[in-house]
Every structure is written in C-alpha cells, then in structure tokens.
C-alpha cells in the first residue's frame, strides 16, 4: 500500500498504512488546506482549484493523501459546477455516504483506501454513467501518462 506525503508541494510515496496514521501525523503530511478538506470534510472555494480547467488527454487523478488512483483523465468533463467533475470513478477506489451537513442531503465521496473526503457525487452527469463526481482539486494530484 502506498502513502503520499507533502514535500515542497509535491507528493512522495512511502509504505505507510494510512489507517494507522494519527491525527497529528495527518497534520504533518498535509498542508492546512489539504487537511481541512481531506480530513475535516471541508470544501475549497468554487472555481479556485488547480484542476477546474485542467483537461489533459491522458493520465490519472490520485488521492492527495494516499496516492490511490481515483479517476482517469478521459472521464473528466466540463460541468460548470466550479469543481473538477468526472462521470466515473475507478472501481473500488471510492466509497459514498449520505451527507446531511449544511441543511442539504448529498452523497459524499471518500477515498476507499484512506477515508479522506474528496467531494460529492450527483445523478445529473453525462452518459454513460449519468454521474457527476464534483471533487476538490486540493484532494487530488495528477499523474500524466
């Protein structure tokens, strides 16, 4: 199992099991904003993330906290929602739960490997899935093929 940690703004891979990390260790590995979103289920401001207008042809979006592949570049689409949007997640890479915070009922998306908050998924996306995964840029890194 691989784990990423922040070092001068880039992710490094090591062999730490994210399930065994303490809150203090997460704080050491992540920037304040990354920690707020990934570990405290925060949200970055609309249209502020580095991947909102990012449209590569090939590559993978990975969980910034642990390096798990979440989305393929080919599944990204322009939704106008203010966050990077994808119509499909990698099989078994995310989990979903009902989120009733902020007076709304939404489906939260979390990393299946490290349980970090990624964003939300809605049923108004394009074919072939009809899904719109709205994911915080700060929750991901991108690896170009």
UniProtKB/TrEMBL annotation:
Listed GO MF terms: metal ion binding; peptide-methionine (R)-S-oxide reductase activity
- Keyword Zinc on this protein? yes
- PROSITE patterns documented for this protein: MSRB
Q: Where is the composition biased (Acidic residues)?
A: 11-23
Q: Which InterPro entries match?
A: Met_Sox_Rdtase_MsrB, Met_Sox_Rdtase_MsrB_dom, Mss4-like_sf
Cellular component annotations (GO), alphabetically ordered? cytoplasm
Entry superkingdom:
Archaea
List the cofactors. Zn(2+)
Q: Which UniProt keywords apply?
A: Metal-binding, Oxidoreductase, Zinc
Reactions mediated catalytically? L-methionyl-[protein] + [thioredoxin]-disulfide + H2O = L-methionyl-(R)-S-oxide-[protein] + [thioredoxin]-dithiol
**EC number per UniProt:** 1.8.4.12
Broad enzyme group:
oxidoreductase
State if Hydrolase is listed as a keyword.
no
User: Where do the MsrB domain residues begin and end?
Assistant: 23-145
Compositionally biased intervals (Basic and acidic residues)? 1-10
Please provide the Gene Ontology terms (biological process) for this protein: protein repair; response to oxidative stress
Family annotation (SUPFAM superfamilies) = Mss4-like
Q: Where is this region: Disordered?
A: 1-28
Q: Which family does it belong to?
A: Belongs to the MsrB Met sulfoxide reductase family.
- What is this protein identified as? peptide-methionine (R)-S-oxide reductase
Q: Which organism is it from?
A: Halorubrum alkaliphilum
């Amino acid at each position: 199992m691989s784990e990423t940690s922040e070092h001068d703004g880039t992710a490094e891979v090591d062999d730490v099991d994210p399930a065994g990390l303490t809150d203090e260790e997460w704080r050491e590995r992540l920037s304040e904003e990354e920690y707020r979103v990934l570990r405290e289920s925060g949200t970055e401001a609309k249209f502020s993330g580095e991947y909102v207008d990012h449209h590569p042809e090939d590559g993978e979006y990975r969980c910034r906290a642990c390096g798990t592949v979440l989305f393929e570049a080919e599944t990204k689409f322009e939704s106008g929602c203010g966050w990077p949007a994808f119509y499909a997640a990698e099989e078994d890479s995310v989990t979903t739960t009902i989120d009733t915070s902020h007076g709304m009922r939404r489906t939260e998306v979390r990393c299946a490997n490290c349980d970090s908050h990624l964003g939300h998924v809605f049923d108004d996306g394009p074919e072939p899935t009809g899904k719109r995964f709205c994911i915080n840029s700060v929750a991901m890194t991108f690896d170009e093929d």
